[in-house]
Amino acid sequence: MFLKLKNGSRVQIRPLKRSDDAKEYLSHINELVKERAFLLSNEIQTLKKERAWLKKCVKEVKSGKAVFLTAWIGRHLIGLSSGISQRGADSGNVEIGLSVRKQFRGQGVGEALISETIFESKKKLRPKNVYLRVYAENKPAVSLYKKMGFKKLALFPKWSLNKGKLRDVYYMVLK
Known about the structure:
about 180 residues, globular
């Protein structure tokens, strides 16, 4: 799938591949951590850890437990989304995740990734529920998720540590 941005850039949205350059994933996550973006991870990663993460993700996809989609401009990773089947008592539920580099936010990349991730997750993972977590103060993300059909299910006050502070988190479920 391809997406054309307002500036004319052509973005390819495709599944994560084992042959992808782990350095691109490392650059992506570390740029977001340095930005102190609204992520669940606050740690700078190493290439060794990122290679192991990529290998684990490919294994989860092959075993039918996850969907990972990526957004690329040329050979540069600009976005990543996931649909991950939960385990145990929560099996049957799929958690959606999304990250987009700062310079590409608000241009449709996140919307395209979420839309395709929901579609692929429903087809391959067959969830009872599709949900996500989002920092309450991340208003652009909350707005996007509402637009995509998610509704606020619960607010967990002072739930996750971000930028050195405990922050409120919404759990949202796809209607």
